[in-house]
Model the fold of this input.
Amino acid sequence: MVLAIFSDIQTNGLSAKGCHFRQIEGKLWEIKIRAASGGYRFFYVMLSSENMYILHAYRKQSQKAPVRELELARKRMREVLS
Done:
């Protein structure tokens, strides 16, 4: 299911079905995907208008993103953008 949603994102961009996009801060964004087995979160940055770089993914277990998950995404974003 998750791969099908990413395929839809590739085809339809922000209009893809089955997911929600949210800006976390600056260039750091999040994709929320709900599946029968639970929720998934993917942190990403856009390197260009057509290149999305997935920084980190985790299975949702609480309403708010855990600090360590967010810090890992920030660290990877700094590495990718430098």
